[in-house]
Specification:
5 helices; alpha+beta; two-stranded antiparallel ribbon
Length: 155
């Protein structure tokens, strides 16, 4: 079969769930180091981390309710495709790989997004979608690398 005929064939893709469970949401923030810079709008990662610590001692359920509101907002953004204004901005930093030698090819570029956008991207794209692509062998091998646990990673 010719290459172009093969491209025209219909293929069925497995379904992909774009949902973030409560446990994924909670654990995603819990594993995140608080010292990481995560926001330009003032909604710091520390706000969520404090709520998680307080959640253990939450006798009246208020802390859990606040965390649940954050989870529900993220779920609504995913379901509706709505992007808050703070998601539409990012800080880009260029860090010299060789301090004192500012060569354009030796700069590390870091983009700082909002913490909930970063969490959503990590959980949906970095984990769920890449696993689905790997399991269905739809991930092109030129876009893969192997991490320290022999898991396929996407570039």
């Amino acid at each position: 079969m010719s290459f172009f005929k093969k491209l025209q064939e219909e293929t069925s893709l497995p379904s992909f769930s774009a949902e973030i469970s409560w446990d994924e949401f909670f654990q995603g923030y819990k594993k995140w180091a608080e010292k990481m810079t995560t926001s330009h709008s003032g909604q710091n990662l520390g706000h969520i981390k404090v709520l998680q610590v307080r959640d253990i001692e939450d006798t009246d359920g208020v802390t859990t309710q606040i965390l649940n509101v954050h989870h529900q907002m993220l779920s609504v953004f995913i379901r509706t495709g709505y992007a808050p204004e703070r998601w539409k901005k990012c800080i880009s930093c260029a860090i010299e790989k060789d301090p004192g030698t500012p060569k354009i090819l030796r700069l590390q570029i870091i983009h700082i997004y909002e913490n909930n956008l970063n969490l959503m991207t990590k959980l949906l794209w970095g984990k769920s979608l890449s696993n689905m692509l790997k399991n269905t062998k739809l991930l092109v091998t030129t876009n893969m690398a192997i991490d320290h646990k022999n898991h396929a990673l996407m570039w």
